[in-house]
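User: Run a structure prediction on this.
Assistant: Running it now.
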Amino acid sequence: MRGDQAGYSNAIVQFDPAIALDPNFALAYAGLSDAWSASSITRVPPAEAYPRAKAAARKALELQDDLPDPHVALGMAILFDDWDWQKAESQLTRAITLAPDLAQAHDAYACFLAAAAGGLLWWSVKGRPISTSRIQAVTFG
């Protein structure tokens, strides 16, 4: 998936036929979730992107709960949409438990830790929250 809105939009469009061909293909829903979450940092409003990302990840988990990818996707969407630290961490640690060698899971958990540190910084120093885009820019380069 190319790292711009055109790439994210293309990925979203490409997952639809895969899902139409096999509605039980959990990894396609996980990929769709990732694409929706990634699109939130470009032109798709987060209020539109994250609910779609969470719905796709939940569908993937409904189909196959033992895949790490949808846990990562759901954890990140929860983190940046709901700011629910416990639920996000639960999904991310589940992904790591399922696939300890999955770099994406560890990258996502590092992002979670950076976001948590930003949240703590907000409470202790500035009195205003750090933006989602700033955390994503720092953690994803």
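The chain is about 80% helix and 0% strand.
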